[in-house]
Specification:
mainly alpha; 5 helices
């Protein structure tokens, strides 16, 4: 299963990784605001399964409510 779900790298994957590793620095770049991040987190469906890390939507929402500055900084 591991070989099926994680195929070997190819040139396309390497190019994408190289492009995304470079930081863009254009005049219109700006940081996300606390409000923008809060809206996204609140919009997460509580009925969806957690990811491999086991962090549920409720955990994300509670963490943001408790530590909005820290989550926004991340």
């Amino acid at each position: 299963m591991l070989e099926y779900f994680t195929p070997e790298d190819n040139d396309h994957h390497k190019q994408v990784r190289d492009i995304t590793a470079r930081l863009s620095n254009t005049p219109d770049d700006r940081n996300f605001t606390r409000e923008e991040i809060g809206k996204v987190i609140e919009g997460i469906n509580n009925n969806k399964a957690s990811g491999e890390d086991g962090i549920t939507a409720e955990i994300n929402k509670l963490t943001f409510k408790m530590f909005p500055k820290s989550i926004t900084a991340l």
